[in-house]
């Protein structure tokens, strides 16, 4: 056995040396890619001028959702400033159909997004072009979008002024994308319709701030060559940064394929990356609190100088579409980035799999018998360990789910997500101690090696399946598999805990990213599904722990017996005490919607609603105003003086006798709305046979049809579009039953009738016209 241990350790050392050599080679800058001349124009960048651009966009113009009049004003402003600085400017208007694919809202929805890209060119002596981009729209009618993304636009406008005053060999292009918040619509349209052959590389700015987020992932990943050069300059500037490793692994399969406007360029094989602000989103993200006060001159100055150096010093050989290593794995340690290329991952994968197979075969050849013992032991362990794993997974979320019900909240973790993550980890550890104590008290197999064998085979199969699907997804489990190999020769609970290290790391990366809220929200929408998935991950952990307990020298039975009661007390304390943690604070206030609602049947009213129970002090302050409070205390209505609606809608429907409905909707606007949303519902199938330009049928993807989609026994179809809007809509609908038509028209509320100024509350003011028809 000692010789086998030494041979195994030697193989591990060889693998480590191989990884080290691969890492060292991957981060060596390529010769000729870094300019040795001093950077020109860095000092010319003015943070004050960039700040004024941000102020104008976020305050003077205000919220700029796709297609709105404010977005058009912003486009005109960008056009003017770029032209004044010597750039050749043109518009690229577009109308695109978007079919959202949101698992949290499984509805058949078709959106028509209208907007425009602003394209500016500054020709140089050479055709090779560096493209700089930023989106200029904001998320909705209430968010001024100072950080997201007037900050990126303001910095690029000032960069445009600096570049316009210089002599330059390279050519430059700046593109301000529209409708990014609708799903990267503007950048996707640009990359599909434009000649990209001269572009060397693309840099995107989305939310300027420090520490810096370097985003390198879309459906593919940024070329390692470009990543290395950018990070070298960022380190020279001593800017704290974070590389979005978790996005590199996870977002490729997303419907959007990435987190910002550089991603469609990667899809077209153009080297690209994004710069933003690192860290989790605070309460101002996509909220009315995203105002100019969030922007600092220091961050603008730092980013301005960094971008000036990047456009001067970074060079990617050649131009146009390229091929590069896309499934490499980046690892950040402090200010250093290490990269294992795809070839290295494949070699490690093959070595790890063959090493595991060799270890399994060698263990089976040993004199120790694996299959001796009572049948009860096999039965109890075969059922008990998977069942315990699922129960431990369920236990981790018990406190949150309990207090969601008690408090009437959809989520209770918004203010302190890191606290709830720590509590979940403690619950998992304590629950596992209790589960191990119960498993050890049952009639169990004494042949500890069988536990190791089953756990290893499970990990091996999972690793092979993931490796055949996508090699980078297999790496965390490959590392775990190697730890299980070590566990056989050096039985210790340490290997069991270290094995899932990269799974821990991915969750930590997510916690410190803008994607945490949506990820955690998905878990809470599908709790049973995620409990089963995490339970499956805990099965190898329990098998490994049972092996370590059986092989170790410690009296584990006594240790577990002593720890089981404290672990149970700890679990109960966390579950009962989770409700004491506030759900909201000043940084993460409770979002509520304040709507002035016009309906044909009830006139005008003020509606206040939230996904969670409304604050008691808000309800108390409105008691004397004749409010109507919903039973769930999540919405209330207030009567307000009747006034003229901002539009008039008339609907007429005629039936040809064969349930072919001629639907006409005429609208007269006193001011432009933002979105028009029409929802058709029926208990029987229906199809839109003919339609005007409300949805351009010619642009509709072939796989999408204008018919009701079944969900929970009903058929529905949602059609929505941004401005410009039609004054009249005419459709022909084929239906077999009664069709319910809901019309919702959304407008900004420039002068709210009721201002809410309560700590830890974030109001979103809107005006809505609602009407419902049945035919």
Q: Can you walk me through this structure?
A:
Helices cover 42% and strands 22% of the residues. The chain folds into three domains: 32-94 and 115-340, Aminopeptidase (3-Layer(aba) Sandwich), CATH 3.40.630; 343-580, no CATH class; 590-775, no CATH class. The strands form three sheets. The protein has a 17-stranded mixed sheet that branches. The protein is built from 21 helices and 23 strands. Strand 6, helix 6 (224-236) and strand 7 (241-243) form a beta-alpha-beta unit. Mean pLDDT is 85; it is low at 13-43. It is of the alpha+beta class and 775 residues long. The protein starts with a helix and ends with a strand. Helix 13 (417-441) packs antiparallel against helix 20 and helix 14 crosses helix 19. The longest helix has 25 residues, at 2-26.
Q: Which structural class fits the helix and strand makeup?
A: alpha+beta
**Which CATH architecture of the largest domain would you pick?**
3-Layer(aba) Sandwich
Strand fraction equals 15-25%
Terminal CA distance: 81 Å
Largest sheet, if any? 17 strands, mixed
CATH topology of the largest domain: Aminopeptidase
Proportion in helices: 40-55%
> Count of helices?
21
Overall number of structural domains: 3
Shape: globular
In round numbers, the mean pLDDT is 85
Low-confidence stretches: 13-43
So, the CATH homologous superfamily of the largest domain? Zn peptidases
């Amino acid at each position: 056995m000692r010789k086998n241990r030494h041979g195994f350790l030697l193989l591990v050392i060889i693998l480590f040396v191989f990884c080290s050599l691969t890492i060292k080679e991957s981060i060596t800058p390529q010769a000729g890619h870094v300019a040795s001349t001093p950077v020109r124009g860095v000092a010319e960048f003015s943070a004050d001028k960039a700040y004024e651009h941000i102020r104008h966009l976020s305050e003077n113009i205000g919220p700029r959702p796709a297609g709105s009049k404010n977005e058009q004003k912003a486009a005109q402003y960008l056009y003017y400033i770029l032209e004044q600085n010597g750039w050749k400017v043109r518009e690229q208007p577009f109308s695109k159909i978007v079919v959202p694919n949101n698992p949290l809202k499984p509805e058949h929805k078709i959106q028509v997004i209208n907007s425009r890209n602003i394209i500016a060119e500054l020709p140089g002596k050479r055709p090779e072009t560096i493209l700089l981009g930023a989106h200029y729209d904001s998320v909705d009618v209430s968010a001024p979008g100072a950080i997201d993304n007037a900050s990126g636009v303001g910095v690029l406008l000032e960069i445009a002024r600096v570049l316009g005053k210089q002599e330059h060999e390279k050519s430059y292009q700046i593109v301000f994308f529209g409708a990014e918040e609708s799903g990267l619509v503007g950048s996707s349209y640009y990359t599909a319709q434009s000649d990209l052959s001269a572009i060397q590389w693309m840099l995107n700015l989305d939310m300027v701030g420090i520490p810096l987020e370097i985003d390198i992932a879309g459906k593919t990943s940024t070329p390692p060559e470009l990543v290395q050069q950018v990070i070298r300059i960022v380190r020279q500037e001593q800017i704290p940064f974070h590389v979005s490793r978790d996005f590199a692994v996870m977002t490729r399969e997303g419907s959007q394929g990435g987190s910002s406007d550089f991603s469609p360029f990667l899809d077209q094989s153009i080297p690209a990356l994004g710069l933003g602000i690192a860290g989790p989103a605070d309460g101002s993200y996509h909220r009315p609190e995203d105002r100019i006060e969030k922007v600092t001159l220091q961050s603008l100055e730092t980013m301005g100088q960094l971008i000036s150096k990047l456009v001067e010093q970074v060079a990617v050989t050649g131009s146009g579409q390229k091929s590069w290593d896309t499934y490499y794995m980046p690892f950040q340690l402090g200010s250093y980035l290490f990269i294992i290329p795809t070839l290295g991952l494949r070699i490690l994968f093959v070595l790890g799999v063959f090493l595991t197979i060799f270890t399994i075969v060698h263990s089976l050849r040993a004199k120790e018998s694996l299959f001796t013992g009572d049948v009860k032991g096999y039965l109890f362990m075969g059922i008990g360990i998977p069942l315990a794993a699922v129960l431990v997974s369920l236990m981790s979320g018990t406190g949150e789910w309990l207090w969601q019900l008690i408090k009437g909240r959809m989520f209770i973790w918004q203010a302190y997500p890191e606290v709830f993550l720590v509590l979940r980890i403690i619950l998992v550890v304590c629950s596992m101690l209790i589960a191990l104590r119960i498993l050890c008290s049952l009639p169990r197999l004494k042949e500890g090696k069988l536990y190791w064998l089953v756990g290893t085979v499970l990990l091996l199969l999972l690793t092979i399946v993931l490796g055949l699907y996508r090699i980078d997804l297999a790496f965390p489990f490959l590392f775990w598999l190697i730890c299980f190999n070590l566990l056989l020769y050096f039985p210790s609970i340490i290997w069991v805990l270290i094995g899932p290290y990269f799974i821990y790391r991915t969750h930590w990366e997510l916690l410190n990213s803008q994607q945490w809220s949506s990820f955690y929200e998905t878990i809470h929408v599908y709790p049973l599904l995620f409990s089963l998935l995490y339970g499956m991950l805990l099965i190898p952990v329990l098998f490994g722990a049972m092996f370590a307990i059986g092989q170790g020298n410690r009296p584990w039975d006594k240790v577990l017996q002593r720890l089981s009661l404290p672990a149970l007390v700890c679990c109960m304390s966390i579950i009962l005490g989770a409700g004491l943690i506030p759900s909201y604070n000043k940084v993460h206030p409770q979002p509520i919607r304040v709507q002035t609602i016009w309906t044909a049947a009830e006139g005008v009213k003020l509606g206040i609603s939230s996904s969670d129970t409304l604050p008691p002090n808000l309800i108390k302050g409105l008691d004397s105003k004749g409010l109507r409070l919903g039973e769930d205390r999540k919405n209330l209505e207030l009567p307000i003086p009747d006034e003229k609606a901002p539009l008039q809608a008339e609907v007429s429907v005629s039936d040809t006798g064969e349930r072919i409905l001629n639907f006409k909707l005429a609208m007269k606007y006193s001011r432009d709305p933002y979105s028009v949303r029409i929802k058709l519902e029926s208990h029987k199938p229906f199809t839109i046979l003919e339609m005007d330009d409300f949805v351009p049928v010619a642009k509709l993807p072939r796989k999408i049809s204008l018919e009701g989609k079944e969900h929970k026994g009903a058929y529905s179809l949602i059609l929505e579009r941004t401005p410009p809007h039609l004054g009249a809509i005419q459709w022909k609908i084929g239906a077999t039953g009664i069709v319910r038509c809901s019309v919702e028209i959304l407008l900004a509320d420039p002068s709210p009738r009721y201002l809410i100024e309560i700590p830890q509350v974030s109001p979103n003011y809107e005006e809505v016209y609602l009407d419902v028809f049945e035919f």
